[in-house]
């Protein structure tokens, strides 16, 4: 496969064109950012870890019936993906109160929500990625009504799978961010990544509110041992995949 030119560079990945216009190469970086890139740093090995975790989760989600942009991984920190037009939306699914939900509502961190909460944020750093109502989505024409309905349905399906998967890893899925794109056939696909960068993950066996953190909050909140936490998540994912324990959660009826 020949790599042509850099198409786009974001905070966590670089996208390159390939010899197939329908296929892009995503190069995962070790760079780390938080608070809309106001805080910057680097997490050693993060690119390869996130790429590997994401590839396994995309493969299992595909078996679960979720269509994604994932094709394969030609290198540990590289992922071949279907070319999509990313919708300018960050879709956040919350199972437990944490982060901005606590800051904006006064809910105590760790409060288990009665049902998953699906939120839409405008993907625009200059505006601070504001929370969107359905009427604002419609006003800004960021997605069609059909796409919004499909995204909510898919987000809840993905949440159902991921909660069970992470539980088998001994990890609680607190909340996570998704992005979706549309391919050349106008098909809605799950895109971006699913990793400790995009998920809030707590160690089930740990009760200390700081030691239990296994995600980018360790970087955001200067908790230390960031690389170790990412490595531990990777090892648990690989163990579950290699043991094929995930087969128990592949059926939506399970």
Structural notes for this entry:
- The chain has 254 residues and is of the alpha+beta class.
- It folds into 2 domains: 5-82, Phosphorylase Kinase, domain 1 (2-Layer Sandwich); 85-225, 2-Layer Sandwich (D-amino Acid Aminotransferase, Chain A, domain 1).
- It has 6 helices and 14 strands.
- The protein has helices at residues 46-64, 100-105, 134-140, 145-168, 217-220, 226-242, and strands at residues 3-9, 13-18, 23-28, 31-34, 39-42, 70-75, 78-82, 85-86, 89-96, 112-122, 131-132, 171-182, 188-191, 199-203.
- Strands 8, 9, 10, 11, 12, 13 and 14 form a 7-stranded antiparallel beta sheet that branches. Strands 1-2-3-7-6 form a 5-stranded antiparallel beta sheet, with helices on one face.
- The model is unreliable at 245-254 (pLDDT under 50).
- One of its GO terms (molecular function) is ATP binding.
- Pfam families: SAICAR_synt (PF01259).
- Keywords: ATP-binding, Ligase, Nucleotide-binding, Purine biosynthesis.
CATH architectural category of the largest domain: 2-Layer Sandwich
Q: Helicity level, as a percent range? A: 25-40%
Q: In the CATH hierarchy, what is the superfamily of the largest domain?
A: ATP-grasp fold, B domain
Secondary-structure element pattern, one letter each: EEEEEHEEEEHEEHHEEEHH
Q: Tell me the span between the first and last alpha carbons.
A: 39 Å
Instruction: Give the low-pLDDT segments.
Output: 245-254
What fraction strand?
Answer: 25-35%
How many structural domains? 2
State mean pLDDT (0 to 100 scale).
93
Helical segment tally? 6
The largest sheet, given as strand count, sense and whether it forms a barrel, is: 7 strands, antiparallel
CATH topology of the largest domain: D-amino Acid Aminotransferase, Chain A, domain 1
Number of strands: 14
Radius of gyration (Å): 18 Å
CATH class of the largest domain: Alpha Beta
The structural class is: alpha+beta
Gross morphology: globular
Pathway: Purine metabolism; IMP biosynthesis via de novo pathway; 5-amino-1-(5-phospho-D-ribosyl)imidazole-4-carboxamide from 5-amino-1-(5-phospho-D-ribosyl)imidazole-4-carboxylate: step 1/2
InterPro entries: SAICAR_synt/ADE2_N, SAICAR_synt_PurC, SAICAR_synth, SAICAR_synthetase, SAICAR_synthetase_CS
Keywords: ATP-binding, Ligase, Nucleotide-binding, Purine biosynthesis
GO molecular function: ATP binding; phosphoribosylaminoimidazolesuccinocarboxamide synthase activity
